[in-house]
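Thread title: Can someone regenerate the structure for this chain?

I was given the following input by a collaborator and told the matching structure tokens would be attached. They weren't. Posting the sequence so someone can regenerate them.
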Amino acid sequence: MTRRPSPKCPGRRRADGGFTLLEMLVVLAIMGLLAAIIAPQVLKYLGASRTQTAKVQIQNVDAALQLYRLDVGRYPTQDEGLGALVTAPATAAGWNGPYLQRPSALIDPWGAPYLYRIPGQHGEFDVYSKGPDKDGKGGEAANVGNW
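Best answer:
Regenerated them for you:
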């Protein structure tokens, strides 16, 4: 009669299905490298998307100002500001608004109100945002306007 070796016999080796610590460290190192390469690109696109959103919103405000002018015969004064697109100013006979549905349409993607200047430096009027840094420096932080 032949005897079978016991499963707990020291001469026999059992195959494990787990990962070693070294394998886990290699995988974590690769994931860290990928994150270091990809994260700056994602942040760059996030900043660019906010700038693009501001450009589109400024175009909407510009169109609303044109409609305001058609109805009232003039653009809002500096004192009336862009709020005249949402609520009727007392001095605007012929106001047929609101020209923008929500007051939040006058807030830029960085949480600051859009700025309005009449007469403008770039046209009849200027609608602009100073961007994320609020001082309008170049690059991603440059002013975004209707010019």
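Strands lie at 115-117, 126-129, 144-145.
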